[in-house]
Amino acid sequence: MHPKISVVIPTYQCATYVRQAVESVIAQRYPKECVEVIIIDDGSTDDTFDVLKPYAKQIRYIHQSNRGLSAARNVGINAAQTDLIALLDADDYWLPDFLSDASDLMGREGEHLVTCDWFESVNEELAEVPFYRKRHLERVFERSATAQLNVGLEANILVASMMMVHRAVFSDVGLFDETLHFCEDLDFFYRCMSANYRVALVPRPNGVYRRFRPGGLTARIDLEKARDRVRVLSRYRNRLSKRRWYNAVGVMDDVGFREALIKGSYGAAARHAVSLLFNPLYTRAVLSRAGNRLAGLVKKAQNTR
To answer: Which of 22, 123, 143, 269 to pair with 89, CA 20 to 30 A apart?
Structure first.
């Protein structure tokens, strides 16, 4: 007996990639009658609608005015007709056994949050070794929710696209925060683990996550994104290392300083500059990285002589 699963795919200006996401769901080795695919088009003005037309009988297509990723995900979650909800972003895709492996682990172990290992794609270059295996993170998923939260607060190790969530979790901790335009997935995962929901791992790699692609949210480094990250981390300030906190604040001030200069907002630029002066952990890290890059360039130049 296979449990029914809803796959929620929010999309915005992602016509280039959304077909691959949908095809990866259709290609799952899981009974088709047990899967509903919900696409939430968050006001795209590209060719998304035309790209999805051939799948009209295989998907539920919901169009809305642009409200952001969190709102689009929440619309899909609320529209889902099943207890098991799998999240997939339109620019990522699964390998054929994701639904089977995730639902099996969830049912066998009574878990409420399940993820899998995945391959990272940077500018369409696919990593050869799965993310968790490469970083020796598999054992993190054997720990308690509290221990997982402590690890997650120091490094971003979870991605929404590789997650299956039981509806009870949303009922308990709430949906994605629609006031956040970035880091909404981190915020959700932190709330889950704070409520004692641990994340279980399928060690087999079952998906591809595009960390950087042209136009993607993860490729953007702007003040709004930096502020949202600081806002999320500030809720756990007493549990963060100094390095993590001051790096997040430093990035915010660094980006804010540059954006303010471009806009001619010299007062704001001065405030960010003063904040950076009182953030030695961040400035030392930036200088160290710059020194390493410079040393690398010098070495490369010497080798080409």
So the answer is: 143
Residue with tokens 């020796």: 136
pLDDT in tens, 208-217: 999 866 555 5
CA dihedral of residues 244, 70, 112, 204 (deg, nearest 10): -70
If you write DSSP's letter for every residue of 178-243 in order, what string do you get? TT-SSSHHHHHHHHHHHTT-PPEEEEEEEEEEEEE-TT-GGG---HHHHHHHHHHHHTTGGGS-HH
Locate 70 and state its tokens.
């969190």
d(CA 170, CA 166): 8
User: Stretch 246-272: mean pLDDT, rounded?
Assistant: 93
Report which of 74, 73, 85 is spatially closest to residue 4, judged by C-alpha positions.
85
Q: What is the rounded CA–CA span in Å between residue 244 and residue 155? A: 8
pTM (whole model) above 0.85: yes
Question: Is residue 192 within 8 Å of residue 222, measured between CB atoms?
Answer: no
Cα dihedral 107, 108, 111, 116, rounded to 10, equals: -90
